[in-house]
């Protein structure tokens, strides 16, 4: 049956800005990057050390998707971290604002939210 997630696909509004955010700020490595002339679109496969991947797409004229107030559909993407405070400090130094840290009422684990350049809600979840 299912083994886990292979990737999450994200369509961005500004490809160079989002590519820099996911690589320079969040530390994803570029696995593969292709310009698809027929679609006037980039597709960039980004990876983390555990094999998690993001497919970053650019599509000219793609419509915006509301994220606030919370809309139906994918709510957010959560990243697991060992030290929440360390990652928050890293993001703050990169001028990325994080929400106040909260504690999951069911698991007792700490977490916070921040956004990518297009306002996609991203979560840091401390293991």
UniProtKB/TrEMBL annotation:
Coiled-coil regions, chain positions: none
Keywords associated with the record: Metal-binding
Domain of life: Bacteria
Start and end residues of each VOC domain: 4-127
A family per Pfam: Glyoxalase
Gene Ontology molecular functions: metal ion binding
InterPro entries referenced in this protein's UniProt entry, alphabetically: Fosfomycin_Res_Enzymes, Glyas_Bleomycin-R_OHBP_Dase, Glyas_Fos-R_dOase_dom, VOC_core, YwkD-like_dom
Matches recorded under CDD domains: VOC_Bs_YwkD_like (cd08352)
Entry annotated with the keyword Metal-binding: yes
Keyword Transferase annotated: no
Annotated protein name in UniProt: VOC domain-containing protein
Organism for this UniProt entry: Alteromonas marina
